[in-house]
């Protein structure tokens, strides 16, 4: 028995070293692929510039040949003011305080932030409880723990791949609101059953023979799989789609606040709630966080309800009957001021006048050429 345990520990160490080596190789591969893609992009850009220059030169040559033959030439004139150089706008750096302040100005961003915060609270509560249950299940059996986690990762990878292939069709058929509601509904159903099963049998997940046959462990594993699979395939795509109708300012500042502040805040709320249960409610004399399964399940259920209502509110703001929201908010690209429109009108009129002058000059040149030809024939 001692030799078996020693072999399992050595095998576990070997697997960890192998995974670390594969991760290092993948890191170098990502760097190499990034450089290759960047180099190919530069080559493609240079070829595109050369092609446009060559096309321009070909047009100039053909126009000159046509003008020499007395044919009508159509030219495109682009006017530039050499006195003023157009300066590219510098990217405006925004602080976290400004990003958070932008949340109070937009109901859409507040709903998005609520969704992100609620997801991270839920994932924090279910992960900690599930890992505590795993520690009780695999107390010293390292080999079985490795097998279990390997199957867990494989199921997540396969399910995520399948869901990502089906997600676009699901969103297109069922709409944004229904697809966004699937994540809290599935997560909430499995998690509440998980906490309920622990409440009925808080002693643990193993029987006298040490077999993994607990319903609580099964429900906790299923809840974690659903949380990760739905995050990659539905939650994140639906969240990114919600940024489409927002203005540029809201996209930059709001996205920074939602993604950074919302995720950290959600994890912090879940951790603080568990720490309060451990240190305050039980006075620090705690053997397992699973003893507070009812309290954790209560917060989880309240979070799911808030998450559900925020999705409905966001769907009503964007239009529930539309797959992709198309509401325009502040800071959009269509909000141009009157001075820019007036300048565009003046440039258009100037270009039209210049084109008319060129056409008149070409017409007079053609008439002069015809008069010269008639005079030469008369002299002969």
What's a quick, concise take on this entry?
The protein is mainly α and 380 residues long.
Tell me about this structure:
This protein is mostly helical. It contains 9 helices and no strands.
Strand and helix layout:
Layout: H1 2-68, H2 96-103, H3 107-137, H4 142-174, H5 176-200, H6 215-241, H7 248-281, H8 293-318, H9 338-379
Helix pairs in contact: 2-7, 3-6, 3-7, 3-8, 4-5, 4-6, 5-6, 5-8
Please report the distance between the alpha carbons of the first and last residues. 122 Å
Beta-strand level of the residues, as a percent range? under 5%
Helix content: over 70%
Query: Which blocks of ≥5 consecutive residues have pLDDT under 50?
Result: 1-7, 204-213, 320-338
Shape: elongated
What are the salient characteristics of this protein?
380 residues; mainly alpha; 9 helices; 77% helix; elongated; disordered N terminus
């Amino acid at each position: 028995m001692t030799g078996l345990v020693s072999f399992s520990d050595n095998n576990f160490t070997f697997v960890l070293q192998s995974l670390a080596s594969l991760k290092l190789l993948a890191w170098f591969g990502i760097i190499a692929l990034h450089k290759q893609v960047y180099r190919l992009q530069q080559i493609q850009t240079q070829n595109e510039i050369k092609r446009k220059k060559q096309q321009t030169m070909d047009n100039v040559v053909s126009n000159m040949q046509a003008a020499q033959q007395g044919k009508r030439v159509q030219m495109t004139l682009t006017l530039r003011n050499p006195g003023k150089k157009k300066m590219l706008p510098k990217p405006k750096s925004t602080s976290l305080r400004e990003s958070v302040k932008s949340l109070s100005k937009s109901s859409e961003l507040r709903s998005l932030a609520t969704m992100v915060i609620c997801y991270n609270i839920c994932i924090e509560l279910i992960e900690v409880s599930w890992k505590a249950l795993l520690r009780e299940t695999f107390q010293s059996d390292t080999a079985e723990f490795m097998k279990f986690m390997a199957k867990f990762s494989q199921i997540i990878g396969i399910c995520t791949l399948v869901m990502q292939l089906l997600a676009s069709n699901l969103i297109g058929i069922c709409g944004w609101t229904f697809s966004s509601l699937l994540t809290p509904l599935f997560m909430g159903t499995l998690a509440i059953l998980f906490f309920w099963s622990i409440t009925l049998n808080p002693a643990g997940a193993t029987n006298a023979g040490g077999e993994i046959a607990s319903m609580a462990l099964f429900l906790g594993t299923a809840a974690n799989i659903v949380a990760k699979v739905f995050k990659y395939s539905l939650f994140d795509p639906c969240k990114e789609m919600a940024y489409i109708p927002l203005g540029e300012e809201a996209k930059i500042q709001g996205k920074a606040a939602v993604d950074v502040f919302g995720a950290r805040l959600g994890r912090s709320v879940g951790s603080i709630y568990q720490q309060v249960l451990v240190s305050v409610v039980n006075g620090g004399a705690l053997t397992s966080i699973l003893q507070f399964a009812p309290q954790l399940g209560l917060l989880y259920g309240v979070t799911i309800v808030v998450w559900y209502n925020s999705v409905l509110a966001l769907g009503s703001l964007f239009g529930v009957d539309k797959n992709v929201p198309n509401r325009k908010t502040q800071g959009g690209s269509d909000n141009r001021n009157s001075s820019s429109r007036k300048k565009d009108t003046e440039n258009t009129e100037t270009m039209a006048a210049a084109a008319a002058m060129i056409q008149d000059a070409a017409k007079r040149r053609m008439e002069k050429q015809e008069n010269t030809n008639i005079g030469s024939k008369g002299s002969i």
